[in-house]
Design goal:
The protein is an alpha/beta fold. It has a single domain (2-185), classed as P-loop containing nucleotide triphosphate hydrolases (Rossmann fold, 3-Layer(aba) Sandwich), CATH 3.40.50. The protein has helices at residues 13-24, 31-38, 44-55, 61-72, 90-102, 117-131, 138-161, 174-185; strands at residues 2-6, 28-30, 81-84, 109-114, 165-169. Adenosine-5'-diphosphate binds at residues 9-10, 13, 30-32, 35, 52-53, 56-59, 64, 85-86, 88, 92, 135, 144.
């Protein structure tokens, strides 16, 4: 299966994406994780990515598209993949779909985890206390919410039109949400 998982910052995409991908035996590909891994390097590009991420804004589309396609071209993605955090902008969406069309593949479904802002803010604060991600500050979180609403939410309308969207209630325990995620992928 070729899947996307979307949702606002702090909703728990990373957690659910790991569970789902291992259940389906497909690789989970998180652009956020790939960018975080890049930061270990001392290059100028790594520094730029670090600053952009810490502010809560998005990394530039061209760079993001390039690292995703490089990853999706590896052999382990041939039978399917779960993309977490990509596409996040309309140009990324267009790019991904053009690239997939060239490969003669298409998406099977787009999961969107939903939760109210109080829940996502609470989870984000808990994560900040645990692993201190530099973009989990109150200020960066505010920016991430705004950028999500402006740049990423419009993608949901596109996927709704394409009848790929599966909305999943992201509140409750990790197990409850995981059950709903698997249920959303079962044929009706
Ligand atoms: P979360 O799901 O909590 O919002 P991620 O780990 O997915 O966080 O992403 C963290 C940051 O990485 C984003 O705020 C952004 O700066 C960068 N990033 C991740 N994916 C993308 C993308 N597809 N396009 C641009 N920037 C991205």
């Amino acid at each position: 299966m070729r899947l996307l998982i979307m949702g606002p910052p702090g909703v728990g995409k990373g957690t659910q994406s790991a569970i789902l991908a291992s259940g389906l035996e497909i690789p989970a590909i998180s652009t956020g994780d790939m960018f975080r891994a890049m930061q270990a390097s001392q290059s100028e590009l790594a520094r730029e990515v670090r600053d952009v991420m810490a502010s809560g804004r998005y990394v530039d589309d061209a760079l993001t598209n390039r690292i995703v396609v490089e990853r999706l071209s590896r052999a382990d993605c041939a039978e399917g993949f779960l993309l977490d955090g990509y596409p996040r902008t309309l140009p990324q969406l267009d790019f991904l779909h053009r690239w997939m069309a060239e490969q003669d593949t298409e998406l099977d479904a787009v999961l969107v985890l939903e939760a109210d802002e109080e829940t996502t803010a609470r989870r984000m604060a808990a994560r900040a206390a645990l692993d201190g991600r530099p973009d989990d500050t109150v200020e960066a979180f505010r920016v991430r919410l705004r950028v999500y609403a402006e740049q990423t939410k419009p993608l949901l309308d596109v996927y709704d039109e394409l009848q790929l969207l599966r909305r999943v209630d992201g509140t409750g325990t990790v197990d409850e949400v995981a059950q709903r995620v698997f249920a959303a992928l079962r044929p009706a």
